[in-house]
Amino acid sequence: MSLSRRQMLVSSAGGLIAAATHPAFATPAIAPELLRQAMEALDRHSAQIPNRDLIAVADFSLPSYLPRFHLVDVTAGRVTSHLVAHGRGSDPRHTGWLERFSNDPGSNATSAGAYRTDGFYTGAHGRSIRLSGLDPTNDNALERAIVVHGAWYVSEGIAAAHGVLGRSEGCFALSASSLTSVMECMGPGHFIYSGKIGGHPEGPAMLRG
After folding, report:
1. Total domain count for the chain?
2. Which of 121, 143, 190, 203 is most buried (CB neighbours < 10 A)?
3. pTM here?
4. Residue 27, in any domain of the structure
5. What is the pLDDT of residues 161-188, one digit of tens each?
6. What does each C-alpha distance from 136 to 61, 183, 195 come to in angstroms?
């Protein structure tokens, strides 16, 4: 019996979520509940996402010094993780923890929800990936110029020296090397999901050390 592409993705996603609960999957860690939310959103927006084999999940329940921008190969069950900064409006005290999401223009905050990558362009931050927000929680992404770009304030060195990364104006800011890796596999028509598990900004403090 042959399986449709949709059935294969659903089957692979179920295995990936199950694997995320296994101790061997702990590094890099991806929260099973957040991954489940991402896969449900991917299914909900499937008509707008032509390329669904590889997705990105940004886990903003983690502090900024940890790799939390996860590239998820849905069919193979592989995950690679990168540092990513959140918006200054989401972390006004610059603690390294995202305290709130916002979709409001001028908020300088990170937005939660599903995004579609709409292609590459060169702007103020160099090569970047333009995004469309697909949910009511992030549908101002184009108006706010929320994109994926590289930033000098995102690196392992910055995280080690300061315990936090710098902050963006709401964009997904990556290190230069991570941006290159992401661009190689996240062209137009891919899916990014931004979310957070738990309500306390410093809930998973046990992850430090």
Report:
1. 1
2. 190
3. 0.83
4. yes
5. 999 999 999 999 999 999 999 999 999 9
6. 20, 26, 14
Structure-token pair, residue 110? 């990170």
Question: Which domain CATH number covers 42?
Answer: 2.40.440.10
Domain that holds residue 182: 5-201
Name the residue with tokens 């042959």: 2
Establish whether the linkage from the previous residue to 28 is cis, with ω within 30° of 0.
yes
pLDDT in tens, 20-66: 433 333 345 788 999 999 999 999 999 999 999 999 999 999 999 99
Q: Which two structure tokens, joined as six digits, stand for 89?
A: 């409006």
Does residue 165 contact residue 154 with C-beta atoms inside 8 Å?
yes
- Determine, yes or no, domain membership for 206: no
Cβ-based neighbour number of residue 160 at 10 Å: 9
Whole-number Å distance between alpha carbons of 13 and 7 = 10
